[in-house]
TrEMBL record:
It comes from the Bacteria. SUPFAM superfamilies: MFS general substrate transporter. Keywords: Membrane, Transmembrane, Transmembrane helix, Transport. The chain crosses the membrane at residues 27-52, 64-83, 95-114, 120-141, 162-181, 193-211, 258-281, 301-318, 325-346, 352-378, 390-410, 416-438. GO terms for molecular function: acetyl-CoA transmembrane transporter activity. It is found in: Membrane. InterPro entries: AcetylCoA_trans_1-like, AmpG_permease/AT-1, MFS_trans_sf. GO terms for biological process: acetyl-CoA transmembrane transport. It holds the Pfam family Acatn. This is Major facilitator transporter. One of its GO terms (cellular component) is membrane. It is a multi-pass membrane protein.
């Protein structure tokens, strides 16, 4: 009887090897924490923008509300404390995550009692406090993810980054669709929707309690980097290792010039996407899409597309490297912005919106996975939360400080959305040129 043997091609073997990387329970926890990280952006982003738009605020005013996102750009200032101070319950990482999740729940309950007509100042204040709690939570979540993966494990870091990205978009896109469906299909007001958002966050906080705290001997790692000076008090040594060493170690390890190059690229890469994202909800409403359209396409469809491309992006990074993943994502990012310009010309076409969302979801997922993996590999595990917060804050700076003027830009263009989106596409080009210039250094980080 003839016997048949099947031989896998080298490419299939590589793919199966990459897929096996995901066969680890740690990635489920990373996925759930990613949901918790992305969900608050709904509270102070899409939902708040839609609420203010329905209350009649101008594009400029809504855009300026985005200044509260600047919190994510400055969270590195207090990240050393999150790396050093251990809460009384659940350990260093889980303790901070649970504490901040609980704060977000309480703040959502407070927001549900406000009226944008009469309490606009307090709406902005609570939004700012949610941003602070969320940004602090992100410090701990990023530290948790990096601590879970062995130092120098590029494949594991790429897999963790893809799961974190898929989780983030599940919180932002999947769960983020719920408020818009409720606003269209029920009599729920925007303040009442914040009650539901708080309840969902409470469930995510419960999940945090069942996660396993990563085990890292941080003091041993710190001892290899710096020694306490005998002439200094314990307090001075603690302040030095907590507030100074995490930053000085990053620059001394990479050299000032290269470290600055890494930080500049991280800042530039997503500025165009940030300008687009800040005004997307306002654009959808002005061009004629309903809340249900926004929920179905911008949230739900984008959610599934992003999850698929997050996992695929992780596989590509494992197989071809982070540099290629970043370059592909950057080119596609500019192309997707031009599709939004086409929508501005054609009007509310749901089929064109679906195509645009698919392309935009691909670029958002792919670029985020590559960027998260890249930043994670640059971190020393002794200061994982602090160093990641330093670099991630620069990436977010473009999405917060700079992009807060996006409404002013649209107004200065007399509402010419097409030209606005063309400008956001052009904004991607400098970062791609800079990426090409530092490509050899990025490849070195991948292999070190």
């Amino acid at each position: 009887m003839a016997q048949y043997t099947f031989e896998l091609t080298p490419k299939v073997e590589v793919l199966l090897t990459a897929l096996k990387t995901f066969n680890d329970k740690r990635y489920l926890t990373i996925f759930l924490l990613g949901i918790s990280s992305g969900f608050p952006w709904i509270m102070i982003g899409s939902v708040l923008s839609a609420w203010l738009k329905d209350e009649g605020l101008s594009r400029s005013a809504i855009g300026l509300f985005g200044i509260i996102f600047a919190t994510y750009s400055f969270n590195f200032l207090w990240s050393p404390l999150v790396d050093k101070l251990k809460p009384p319950l659940l350990g260093l990482r889980r303790g901070w995550i649970f504490l901040m999740q609980s704060c977000v729940v309480l703040l959502c309950l407070t927001m549900s009692q406000l009226n944008a007509d009469h309490d606009l100042f307090y709406v902005a204040l609570i939004g700012l406090l949610i941003a602070i709690a969320s940004a602090t939570q992100d410090i701990a979540i990023d530290g948790f993810r990096i601590d879970c993966i062995e130092q120098g494990d590029k494949d594991g870091m790429s897999a963790a980054s893809s799961m974190a990205t898929a989780g983030w978009w599940t919180g932002y896109g999947g769960l983020g669709a719920i408020p818009f469906f409720l606003a269209d299909l029920t009599s729920w007001s925007w303040p009442n929707i914040y009650l539901l958002l708080g309840a969902i966050m409470a469930l995510l906080a419960c999940a945090t309690c069942f996660a396993n705290e990563p085990s890292v001997d941080r003091e041993a790692l710190l001892g290899r980097i710096t020694n306490a000076h005998a002439n200094n008090s314990a307090v001075i040594n603690w302040l030095r290792t907590t507030l100074i060493t995490p930053f000085s170690e990053f620059f001394s390890r990479n050299g000032i010039k290269l470290a600055a190059s890494f930080l500049l690229f991280i800042f530039l890469f997503k500025i165009g996407e940030a300008f687009l994202g800040r005004m997307s909800i306002v654009f959808y409403k002005e061009v004629g899409f309903s809340n249900s359209d926004i929920a179905a396409y911008s949230k739900l469809l984008n959610w599934w597309v992003t999850i698929a491309f997050s996992l695929l992006g992780g596989l590509v990074n494992i197989r071809y490297g982070i540099y290629r993943g970043l370059m592909i994502a950057g080119v596609a990012m500019a192309a997707s912005n031009l599709l939004f310009a086409l929508i501005a010309q054609t009007g509310p076409s749901t089929s064109l919106l679906a195509i645009t969302v698919i392309v935009d979801g691909f670029t958002g997922a792919w670029s985020t996975v590559a960027m998260v993996a890249f930043i994670s590999l640059l971190c020393n595990r002794a200061f994982s939360a602090t160093q990641y917060a330093l670099m991630a804050s620069l990436s977010v700076a473009g999405r917060t400080l700079v992009a807060s003027s996006s409404g002013l830009v649209v107004d200065s263009l007399s509402g010419n959305w097409s030209f606005f989106f063309i400008l956001t596409a052009v904004m991607v080009i400098p970062s791609l040129c800079f990426l090409y210039a530092i490509r050899h250094h990025i490849k070195r980080v991948e292999t070190s």
